[in-house]
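W.,

You were right to be curious about this one. When I first looked at the sequence I had no strong expectations either way, so I just let the prediction run and decided to look at it fresh. Below is the sequence, 103 residues in total, followed by the output.
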Amino acid sequence: MSTILQMILENKDKVLKVPLFCFFSIVIVYIVFKFIKKEGIAKYIFGLVMLAVALVLFIVSITNLTDPIVLTTLEFFVLTLASGVVSLCAAWFLDLFFVKGKK
């Protein structure tokens, strides 16, 4: 257990990126939701774009596995994938709980 905590403390800049990206994606989805409540698809666009970017980053990183820059590309893949999924879930929850008039 202490080795896991030590690894987390040594790489805390990379460990903190994922929750920060997820938080900022939720904020962006909430801002879009506040401005455009009636449009059903508008709040999902950010999450879908993030998932598309994650897919492109994954394909680029898989095709260039011998390149040393691939680790950075994979790091951005994880960040965009996590924030895309979280923003899609946040948009879905906002749609479920705050859009009135749906049955």
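Here's what jumped out at me. The chain has five helices and no strands. And, maybe more interesting for your project: The chain has a mean pLDDT of 87.

Coffee later to discuss?

I.
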